[in-house]
Amino acid sequence: MMQKNVIDRLTRIALGALFVVAGAGKLLAGSMVVHQFETWGLPFSEVLPTVVGIVELLCGIALVIGRSNRLASAPVLVIMLGATLTHLYNQEVLPALFVLVLVWLLMRIILRRRSEK
I want to staple 23 with a disulfide (CB 3.0 to 4.6 A). Which of 2, 13, 57, 59 is the partner? Predict the structure, then answer.
């Protein structure tokens, strides 16, 4: 049981760190990310990368420090579902599969029983 808790904790921290880096990247890359969102045909491509970047950054920080894990996972889960659909629509299968792994990990955090903490 203790080994499972350690694995869950490390997974949460790694996932949070990934979202911190991804969110910061979107905020720092600016016009490159806007161009990519435009290429994918996403609406509000001037604003959407900033919103997504802020959500990923803040939720990633919350996951790393272990506060409100379910609450922090839900917004990035929605973003990752959108990313999956975007990649599939644009026939980008490998990125879609990677994002689906993130969706699965986020669902594990959200659906984890309180008694398992």
Answer: 57
